[in-house]
Amino acid sequence: MNRFEYIRPRSVAEAVAAAAIPGSAYLAAGTNLLDLMKIGVARPGRLIDLNHLPGLDAIETLPGGAVRIGAQVRNAELAHDPEFARRFPAVAEALLSGASAQLRNAATVGGNLMQRTRCAWFQDTASACNRREPGTGCDALGGENRMHAVLGWSEHCIATHPSDFCVPLVALDAVVEIEGAGGRRDIPLADFHLLPGTTPERESVLAPGELVIAVRLPAEAAGFAAHARYAKLRERTSYAFAVVSAAAGLRIANGRIVEARLALGGVAAKPWRAEAAEASLAGAAPDADAFRRAAEIAMAEAKPSGDNAFKIELARRIAIRALTQAAAGTPDRLPALPASSFASNAGAPNMGGLHV
Amino acid sequence: MSDVQRMRHGSSIGLPVTRRDGHDKVTGQARFAADNHPTGMLYAVLATSRIARGRVAFLDVAAARAHVGVVEVMVPGNRPALAIHPDDKSVPFSFKMDLLQDDRVRYAGQSIAVVIAETLEAATEGAALLAPRYAAEAVEVTLDAPGAFVPETVGVGAPAEQRHGDVEAGLDHAAHRIETTYETPLQFHNAMEPHGIVAAWDGDALSIDMPTQGLALTQMRIAAFFGIRMEDIHIRSPFIGGGFGSKLLAGPQVLGILAAKLVGRPVKLVLTRAQMYGPVTHRSATRQSLRLGAAADGQLTAIDHHVRTATSRHDDFLEPSGGISHSLYASPAIATTADAVRLDTGTPGFMRGPGEASGSIALESAMDEMAAACGIDPLEFRLRNYAEVEPITGKPFSSKALRDCYAQGATTFGWAGRPLAPRQMRDADGLLVGWGLGTAIFPAMMFQAEARAVLRRDGTGLVEAGIHDMGQGAWTAFAQIAADSLGLDIDQVEFRGGRSDLPNAGIAGGSGHTATAGGAIHAAGGQAIARLTELAVADPRSPLFGAGNVGVVARDGRLVRWDDESRGETYGDILARAGLDMVEGQGSAAADQATAEQYSLHAHGAVFAEVKVDPELGQVRVTRLVGAFAAGRIINPRMVRSQYYGGMIWGLSFALHEHAAMDVRTGRVMNADLAEYRVPVNADVPSVEAILVEEEDPHVNALGIKGVGEIGITGTAGAIANAVWHATGVRVRKFPIALEAFSGA
């Protein structure tokens, strides 16, 4: 294993100061970073462990109704917080549709935002990857790239951001609280991740050494609670990243959509907010025609980056699915298989000897 | 359990005894190879090639050596000498190996150096510091590579071309014809336990902890490599964390033995998960073209099954997918042919159901397509083409309860009333529902095995055979056979296995281990009992005096007269009076040529699948699997059910998930980990049921065992593919079935 310094700061200020030295990396749960270190993709010289910092593990309701989620709150903890899940059900559903129970127990809110793409060429140090090593090229172009981006990609990088959690967050106008040497600042999540352009190595607006300390959801985000869903298409029933996913939130009054929120996952290097599609839904009846139109608008700019034209149609369909389910109303209880086509995990009537 | 009771052979065989190693396994006490840490042990880590063809031009050995904790770096220049060349295939089932013989690279993932260090971490970093530079050459890794050739044999010496009847005439006269091509992907075994070894030399003697499916063959292979005597090599392999054909012999672990020799200390070498996608064999991709002809009444008139497969550029193993068409469905004309290309990959090998698994999904899909073309229910179609004798040879089956499998499976599944046309069924949530069927078949193979059985004066028994437990339950099943062979309760018999210093129990492969080693144990116990009987019936002081060998039954630690069970005595009494501490029996078992020439020997089954498919998104879930299998005598129904479950889930994996994504430009597998090389998770398998169909086989072998380890894959993969068609109306012919297939639907 490569040698690195391990630093356990006692405060956010100490952490940020420690990270000022180039080659530093923050360590949260390490569910992604440690894997990348093992395969040589990440080789930080200093690991700054956030797991013992005070004050980053709270879920707080702020005056006025916004909720502030500390960066070290674990995915499972947040998803199972009854008040949070009641007010932001699509966020809870997205969290529970991701990874495995073990990973969700460890992975953090901040780490989820900061996770890297699972692009196979990014993870293979023998391949060219502009994101990993600027200027080397992109071997994903021309490879088996059926899972890659269909929106916002460039010739320099076609990777996707793998998060489920970020998809409803961006739909709900989440704000990222950042602390750095220059002080504290807020960035809307929609602006946090960067599209690749000519600099795919720049994945977020974080300056070197800056630390995500919290994510805030505004009070208005709870206004979608009655009609909020996350839908995720994946290639096995559990423990798989989204091929495409969508988060939808609707405010419905008198049979009309007052306000809509829609974001897509698995389609781009960032969680993809579909604002024009949202605008098309305002004032419309929550019906199939409106949802089909919105989905078309959401994907209007999409183009395949390789063998993935099929994802464009699937992204439309998952958007329609999320909107349709949202319109039908948030269920009282999350399904056993959250965000899945197979809502129920029940066995068949004449069941065999092996059950889950 | 009435079915089990009827099948009981003695006091233990047929009972669902729980795993004898279960407690140790669930409490972490079962010691697998890599759990051993002899004093002074060092850690070895492989450095593997990132290119698939070319030469290693430079390794920064100095940098690796300079790393703290690194003891030695083994490269071709300092690798200890071997007695034979690594390309010398010195024993059966062996392949050419890459043991640092030179700077050539034949496939991605090939070992190019071994770093030996005081810690795993230091060895890992040392391997990274080697920073190899290569002289790379262009690679070929697809089935469309140039230079296709027709091999003489496929699999293990099977003719590449087999013909019976006139296929072209059969097709010409057919009322219905289909001509289809199916593609199966490159797959890797992915046993949970990676290949590993702990090797320690003591002079010319070698002590090894290593998982192996073939103790004696491995011992022979290593003896040949190092020019030492087999009896100086001691291998312990008490538990194997899955082998599936990839652990038949010593693989890259030989490098661990070489490393131990180089540094003069014990060495542990364990492959990483990523390193399991190169040097430990795999299942080649296949492209299978099937032409079927059927008369108006649905009787097949011809089966033509052509297989394109691939082997490595340097060695031969050709996935024998066409074999399945020889024995399953009655047809007056059958032809199976093969061709292949040579690729810059590791050599393919035996991967659970080699040939049968890949061939079955193609044949069962084609049968389903033909049933639809004929407008006949798929089960009825298979019954109309039921083979009363093996189609390609005309030989009778030693036993065949396939009709019972179809009937019991169909009843349990609820097959009746299935609509003929696809896309007719929906569930309450609007999901498309489909039902599919596949026939399972697997040859009943035997190899060669020996065993030793002892009856002791204290009334207990000892049975020894170098058997292999890969998780299938060998420790339990063989103990049951051993107990019955000695007429003792299972707890009265000490059973030893999993070591090379015991009688050669052959291999755990070809689903033939229980039949072969079990047969040897049965014979050894029988001989011990016969010797004890000789003592008793010749002794005027015994109540059995004069009864004769055939007049005596061994039961519950006693010999009794069969015609008067009140007359008998304990084993201990007989031995005590004879002044003996023990009697011993030797036994062996092997495939019987005469039987194989006279009969077709196969296990059969029928697998029924229900899938649900999201009509808009195309996501597929197998909501029910019901398999009914007839495989001769069942030694332990609990273990056997688990074997069927495992096989059926593997079949599910074959149909929907497994696929090594190789970058065709570089020959590297790009999803060499268990996150991205997809296998099913629990949520993918909500319900699986295995029915044990009673079958008595008087011919196949002494115990009437056919083997259950691989058959569950066959039938299942096709049943799922057929259910997907029935649900959606989309016939997918490229596996695994991917979302792309439905995005236009």
Polypeptide structure, described:
Chain A: Residues 1-222 form the FAD-binding PCMH-type domain. Chain A: Pfam families: CO_deh_flav_C, FAD_binding_5. Chain A: This is Xanthine dehydrogenase family protein subunit M. The complex is a heterodimer of chains A (356) and B (745). Chain A is 26% helix and 19% strand. Chain A is of the alpha+beta class and 356 residues long. In chain A, a hairpin with a 2-residue loop joins strand 10 (244-253) and strand 11 (256-265). Chain A starts with a strand and ends with a strand. Chain B has 745 residues and is an alpha+beta fold. Among the domains of chain B are: 2-28 and 447-590, Aldehyde oxidase/xanthine dehydrogenase, molybdopterin binding domain (Aldehyde Oxidoreductase, domain 4); 355-445 and 597-742, 2-Layer Sandwich (Aldehyde Oxidoreductase, domain 4). In chain B, the strands form eight sheets. A seven-stranded mixed β-sheet of chain B has the order 3-5-1-14-11-12-13, with helices on both faces. A five-stranded mixed β-sheet of chain B has the order 9-17-16-15-10. A five-stranded mixed β-sheet of chain B has the order 18-19-27-28-31, sandwiched between helices. The longest helix of chain B has 25 residues, at 513-537. The radius of gyration of chain B is 27 Å and the shape is globular. Residues 1-9 of chain B have low confidence and may be disordered. At the A-B interface, helix 12 and strand 13 of A face helix 4, strand 28, helix 16 and strand 31 of B. Strand 13 of chain A pairs antiparallel with strand 31 (687-692) of chain B.
